[in-house]
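Its record is set out here:
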Amino acid sequence: MFDLAGLGVTRKRRFLSSSGDEVTADSAERTEHAYTLPKSTEIQATFSREGLGNKLRKIFKREVQTGDGLFDEAVNIKTDTAETTAALLESRDLRAVIERLIANGGALEIDGAIVKVDLPGRQELDAEVEMLLVTTLVSPAS
């Protein structure tokens, strides 16, 4: 079994209302999985569904592009650390995980050592997805 503590990672799950207030699992409209990594990723980025408004904003602000047409079309990337974010996204497996989260209505936020996965409804994060996401961020390729 995958051991977050063995990597120095802590995890907290919260059930949230649509306004962001913490609620019971039975009334959750969103589930937030928050991870604290043992060191900063030096990345500040959010990944969400690509929508019309985001596409229009791209006219005025350049977005990180990965060269993976399906990913670039499906995922909106907002970042203040474009170079580091682009390097992270060189991982095809990680792009697939992010795309899968987004396709299922989720979002991902990376802010240094804090990583948040936001999923609709009351959901657990798939163990394989969690493992790949966390291990990639804890041990990025050099």
